[in-house]
Amino acid sequence: MEIYLYIALFAPLVGSLFAGLFGASPKTVITGIVTSGLLFTSFISSAILLSFVMSGHTVHVEMMTWMAAGDLYIPFGFVVDQVSVTMMMVVSIVSTVVHIYSIGYMDHDKGFNRFFSYLSAFVFSMMVLVMSDNFLGLFIGWEGVGLCSWLLIGFWYHKESATWAANEAFIMNRIADLAMLIGIFMMYWSLGSLQYDVVFANIGNIPVEVVTWIGIFLFIGAMGKSAQFPLHTWLADAMEGPTPVSALIHAATMVTAGVYLVVRANPIYDLIPEVGLFIASLGAFVAMFAATMALVNRDMKRIIAYSTLSQLGYMFVAAGLGAYWVALFHLMAHAFFKALLFLGAGNVMHAMHDELDPFKMGGLKKSMKWTWILMTLASVALAGIYPLAGFFSKDLILEVAFVEQHYILYTVLLLTAGLTAFYSFRLVALIFHGNERHLEHGIHPHEAYNFVLFAMAPLGILAVIAGMAFKTPYYEMVTQLLPAIEYHIHNHTVFWIMTIGTQLFVILAIAYAYKKYAKAVKVDEKVESGFFYQLLYNQYFIPKIYDEVFSKPYLKLSKLAWKEIDLKIVDATVDGIANVIYRTGEKTHTMQDGNLSSMLRWMVIGLVVLLVLAVAFTAGYNVVNLRAM
Amino acid sequence: MELTLNHYLVLSTILFAIGLIGVMRRKNLLMLFFATEILLNAVNIGFAAISHYRGDYTGQMFAFFIIAIAASEVAVGLGLLIVWYKRTGKIDLDQMTSMRG
């Protein structure tokens, strides 16, 4: 089985290096085909490993020693167990689809080969992240995906906004990664190992305060990667990158790494339920907070990005309340339908010549039938309508909150479910229904390539069946590793009222969205100039606050350091030393007048000086030595 | 009055000072060579005297070396001086400024 592990892990790397060879040359379709083929290989290997893990085994290999110094021993070890194999399947399926999709999407782009090199490198880093058997390997993968995310957000580096967004994402993640690193150091300090099995076996033997701090620091790292408040602003700005990147990295895989970390570290978080409750509360807050911003936004991709943020909040609620398998299940289902939604949005963007404002679209269901069907499916799955994926995974989180008797969290999540349905179908209605507003702008939409639609089909199927078909076998598999807690509402009346009530609530929200946006779009001036609309439209003014509180003072400080400290102190000192030497040379070069006689005179002066020094030194030396005697 | 080491050393110092002043003051290249010879021989006197009084012949050996070196130096120097005189017709130090920095 080890060979499949290595294939699953290294096939993307091989693809990345292969595409990298052609990085500087113009578009060659072969790079896209080879990387997609290698990812499909990786997917097949993951599937074989999945069937192996399903039968109750795990694979654990130690490829080689990485660091060994004194008591420190960290190997390049990889583990395929119930949790990592789930992530491997999600990553390999979505990335294969996204790679094939990108062959169509990046068709006319100059950086075609470079794009595939970065994208495959990302998949490799993500595989390292999920397959590592120790925290440091996870951290390397963590940084690797961060780097690839930076490369891909700033893929169109000639755009000022893209480079800005890339740097923002990178810097925000760096802040969080520092905390994560501190957490890892503390873990090593108190336990002497970073291997998962050793750490989890001994975590109960150290003081609970230390465990609390480790949990907090690791979660701060997860907050950065998963864009939780207050480090959330980068995710919406990351939409500057190409749409397949948003689908793969900023919806399906990388941003869920934070959830994966909490799930992976579940023995740590089991010991500190207070931190878990904080995680859940923050998750619920972010779910609501992001959903409200998505309500009014006018940028198609940002709406979906906020939706991702909101769903990540749901996952953290589940993980924080100890329902780790539920979090992982929603992570999986969400990856499928959210990637599908993004890829559909990519098709729309192409058809609309990169127009992102859904208010300028409309009526696209005629010309883009298949995209319409796929995006509607994804939105229904996201809204959580029976029997699609979201119903099983998202409503399960609501049940978890209810069963664990956190009624406030439950209420927040329920309201958010309504908001989710509303903004999802607001988007669908604006894009695909109503009159064709884009005709005024002289755009004639066309459907995407057939193979692109065909590549999206597996995600469409998974968005439909993932919940219904996978829930039971998944539960049986993953609970061999994660705590097996079934969340059932035992009172039948309450259960049915809740389920049907939630469904009705969501359907009403969808209907309202359709009623408001599907026919003609009326802009309500009074609402739009209102305080709440402006508050939401400006993202609670948080980007502005960050700009004022952090960026601008930092800029001032930097300018101060540059003009006052660097120029006036550091540079002045260095220049001063050079100037002294230069001026000395200027003054003394007259000595070298070429006249032998004056040179001899200088020589005599030098001799006298040396003699005086020698005598003075000898005398001084004698005086000191005699005293000492 | 008996001659002591100090007498020789004083003589050596006086000669050395005369040579040094000659080196500094003289503008004629030939005179410069004379002054240099005085300097070297002042040191020779010192070496020979100290060697005699200490009963150690190393100093006298040094003196012989210095005499040999001084002779070869003068031979080379005078050769150069003659070439210089043939070219310029002068042996004035102040004229030699091609090494001006």
Compose a concise summary of this entry.
With 629 residues, chain A is mainly α.
Name the features:
heterodimer; A: 629 residues; 24 helices; 75% helix; B: 101 residues; mainly alpha; Helix Hairpins; 0% strand; elongated
Low-confidence stretches of chain A: none
- CATH class (first level) name of chain B: Mainly Alpha
Level of helix content of chain B? over 70%
How far do the termini of chain B sit from each other? 54 Å
Q: What percentage of amino acids of chain A are in beta strands?
A: under 5%
SSE arrangement of chain B, N to C: HHH
The general outline of chain A is globular
Question: Would you give an account of this structure?
Answer:
The complex is a heterodimer of chains A (629) and B (101). Chain A contains 24 helices and two strands. In chain A, helix 3 runs antiparallel to helix 10 (243-252) and helix 14 (300-320) packs antiparallel against helix 18 (407-432). In chain A, strands 1-2 form a two-stranded antiparallel sheet. Chain A starts with a helix and ends with a helix. Chain A has helices at residues 2-21, 29-54, 82-105, 112-131, 135-153, 160-191, 196-202, 208-225, 233-237, 243-252, 257-264, 266-271, 273-296, 300-320, 324-351, 369-383, 389-403, 407-432, 450-478, 492-517, 525-528, 531-537, 542-588, 596-628, and strands at 59-69, 72-80. The model of chain A has no long low-confidence stretch (mean pLDDT 88). By secondary structure, chain B is mostly helical. Chain B has one domain: Helix Hairpins, CATH 1.10.287.3510. Chain B has helices at 5-25, 29-54, 58-88. Chain B is built from three helices and no strands. The longest helix of chain B has 31 residues, at 58-88. Chains A and B meet through helix 24 of A and helix 1 of B.
